Amino acid sequence: MSNRLALEDSPYLQQHKDNPIDWFSWCDEAFLKAKNEHKSIFISIGYSSCHWCHVMEHEVFENPEIADFVNQHFVCIKVDREERPDIDKHYQELHMLLNRRSGGWPLSIFCTPENKPFYAATYIPPYNKERMMGFSELTAIIAEKVALNDEKLFQNAEEITGYLRPKNESVQATALNEKIITQFSLQAEHNYDPINGGFSKSPKFPHASTLQTLLSIERLDNNEKIKSIITHTLDSMSLGGMYDLVDGGFCRYSTDEAWLVPHFEKMTYDNALLCELYAKAGILYHNDHYLRIARESADFMINFMMEEDLFYSASDADSEGEEGKYFVYSYDEIITALKSVCPSRADEAAQLIGATPEGNFEGDYILRLASNERPEWFETFRLQLITLRKSRIYPFIDKKIITAWNSMMIKALFVLGKTEQKYRAQAILSLEKLTSTMFLENQLKHSTLIHKKPKIDAFLEDYAYLCSALIEAYQSTLNETYLIDAQRFANKALELFYEEGKWYFSRGAFTTVAELDDGTYSSSVGVMVSVLQSLGMLVDQKYSRFAFKSLEYVSIKLMKTPIYYPTLTAEVIRSLKEKRLIKNNSAQLSRIGEIFSYPYVLLKNDETLESFTICGENSCYASTNEVTKLDDLINTTL
């Protein structure tokens, strides 16, 4: 028999509707029940494509014995962290406070009957295991302590709740200067893996925002060392493994140092940010391989993760109960496919892609190339592997539509659209659909499902990324409507989330301060500051003052360890450098299809002009009628 979650829209909550646990969604009824019946509250936070969330569900939440005890002594609440990132951020901060390390998913929180938290963990096994306390044993202890009104437990909960309350802290500022460029570059070089590329050991994440900031730095001074870090990392990530050479698109991260064995879930935000990064690098470096990776990633999102011009949030790592089953191949499947495309050289071809009878993943094989020069037979071979996948069950797709993540993908399509018109056309369609779906009754919304009415109001990240996409749309099309909308949503974000340089992620049921670091994806504060700097050039300098105040507020952190804050660091550098506007009528500006070597250039439509005019913040410097001279001319004005 299904529990209450059967009534929820969230695909993640729907996954738990048949658990024997008597789940509530986040609601007043659950908290009132806990208080009236004097029961501890258990809050479980996860998302639909989270592998360890599935493990804990199978081991713990589907266990009838555990469920019987928990239903008797606890009120249990399930939260989709993608649907309610404000709740997730609040309790992730709790996990950090209590455990002195970052959390993750599944996130497991225990609270008093008055909803005051006292214990936080991530995955918990069903029973005691090595040095990990089991869920069964833990809940037995908590249930007894709550029933007996254990004084220490309730006192600890009071103290923890006090620590979690938002505080008005006095903030000291320091001068922002160009030392941040050297500091960021040195810290990136220190973290850089010279063998495999990237910036960490295993597990290895793509760090798209770090690479984006390095790309800006490299464009400023043609630093060959920085350029080699960027290109080596982009080359290594695209060889296969974490990058899916068959369907296209990037998996969440690599479990090893060499980008070979991925955690197979695919997230919209990863593919959006990496698609944009590869597209920019491809255009700047005239690199066809990077453009191919960007196009394949965009095509994956359009073909697998889009419905009615909107993009789903994620696809799962697991299918048929096994992680990666859809993605990997047996050695026999690989050899059979190779023999069909290059019959006389099948063994030689197998060596080129590293295929062996032993495999490279639990006896099976993850496709990976020795170099990014794909053999002439590769495309036909890839089609054979696509055919094999069509006979398999595709991993579960979370069909949630999230404003911020859709905006990331739309921006990437506009950037890629500089090389191929069809991607810009898709970006225009998707942006129109997103705003008509998620902006209702003068209120921007955070998430929904296709054909459902969105219920949750937008958070800072939704405003920030939507504004960023709108500005990119304006740069691509010169349609003034996009610029007007970007200004309107930026004004609303300032009204809702800004306070004297400080930014909040949410100010509803949970007041949460916006993160500065680029964690799962680029900081919403960093993206918002970028938006404000662009609007300061394109519309009104007052926006630049909001941007500077935001940077000044966190200046000490940025100058000390900029590597933790790549997006904000990029905006500090931008604020210190001269900016340039190229003005002309829209017909002439539409002829510009490149990304300029200098990173801080924007286009501004002026129908009174007939030549390209290069301007700064307070004056104009030069003009020309020739598009090909613009890049050199910009550099002469700096």
Poorly predicted regions are none
- The tally of strands reads 25
Can you name the CATH architecture of the largest domain?
Answer: Alpha/alpha barrel
> How confident overall, as mean pLDDT?
95
- Overall outline: globular
The major pleated sheet works out as: 5 strands, mixed
In what order do the strands lie side by side in the largest sheet?
A: 1-3-2-4-5
Q: Structural class from helices and strands?
A: alpha+beta
Structure overview:
The structure is a single chain. The protein is an alpha+beta fold and 638 residues long. It folds into four domains: 4-164, Glutaredoxin, CATH 3.40.30; 179-318 and 398-576, Glycosyltransferase, CATH 1.50.10.10; 327-391, no CATH class; 580-636, no CATH class. Helix content is 48%, strand content 13%. The strands form nine sheets. It has a five-stranded mixed sheet. The protein has a four-stranded mixed sheet with strand order 23-22-24-25, sandwiched between helices. The longest helix has 18 residues, at 421-438. It is globular, with a radius of gyration of 26 Å. The termini are far apart. The model has no long low-confidence stretch (mean pLDDT 95).
Summarize it:
The protein has 4 domains: 4-164, Glutaredoxin, CATH 3.40.30; 179-318 and 398-576, Glycosyltransferase (Alpha/alpha barrel), CATH 1.50.10; 327-391, no CATH class; 580-636, no CATH class. Helix content is 48%, strand content 13%.
Keywords, please?
638 residues, alpha+beta, Glutaredoxin, Glycosyltransferase, five-stranded mixed beta sheet, 25 helices, 25 strands
